[in-house]
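Recall that a protein's primary structure is simply its ordered list of amino acids. Everything else, from secondary elements to tertiary packing, is in principle encoded there. The following example makes that idea concrete.
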Amino acid sequence: MTRKTYSRREFLTGRAATGKAPAPLDILILGGTGFTGPEQVEYATARGHRVTLFNRNKTRPDFFKGRVDQLIGDLNGDVSALAGKKFDVVIDNPTTFPAWVRNAAQQLKGNTKHYMFISTISVYPDNSKPGADETDGLTPLPAGLDPYTTVADDAKKYYGALKTASEQEVAKHYAGIHTIIRPGLIVGPLDRSDRFTYWPARIDRGGEVMAPGRPTDPVQFIDSRDLAEFMIRMAEVRAFGTFNVTGPAAPLTVAEMLGGIKAVTTAGAHFTYVPADFLRANGLQGWRHMPVWINPEGATAGFTRRGISRALAKGLTFRPLAVTAKDTLDWNKTRPEAEQKTLADGAIAGIPASKEAEVLAAWHAKQKGAP
């Protein structure tokens, strides 16, 4: 069978562009060539907006050369390329450190009508309450940690706290004209974290697939294209405020997710659900080894049940799971060999086939020995 080849645009948009915006905007995207940024560029230009990128031009260099304006600089250093520039909207994708917001504000404060910041639901320290909304408490920086002198090693250790501090920095410089977007797990083509990609790739191999927890356990995630399109539409109407942005609109179970992914494959996979306590006893963790899923009890009972009613009221939409799964699987098959190996080894997310077989064998042995 001949495999269809996909253009970059097909992978980025996933569907035909929808209509033109009521009025064109001058949009500055900080970053713009990583994961969500390219989707923003594609949707914004399709809607008729003028786009400028500001980045180091190191991640996918010249990715949109000739299609958008490119300003080269570093949020952690030289931002002089922004001097004297004015924009209707600034979209801040990459910032983790408050100093980056402060540095950019040296040039952008007073020169934009709207600042949009991608934060994260990791700003919430309490994940025990299903349905918690944007008013939930946030993670403070540890006492004695200077938000302006943090280093790269702090990004992982204090991720939620640094994002909280960055949100506060945004509010300080762009009071009354800012939007905070708090996504959950972002998935889809171009995602190198493998946190969703593991499942389409694994299910496409067929056979017995180890599934986590119970079939009714909840999961939440959002296609990067849905996130990008929502943000551009929010920019068009200058919608300010704070929004949890994950999905889908109605609760989704892990069984529905895995079954939906299986539906776009032909390998005939079948699932064996292994309880959370057995996974843990065999050294496997939710999210890291069993991606997307996390044990919906106790301290993590609300992690995959965040309230999203504010975003839904503002028009957040979701493409079908089948589209996300199929596009992710097709994109994954085009990845470089080294990335394919990383995924197969479970180096970032998921587990290698040998570990899966080992735990499944142990689970079946336990079941046979049960009274």
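Confidence is low (pLDDT under 50) at residues 1-10. The first helix runs from residue 8 to 13.
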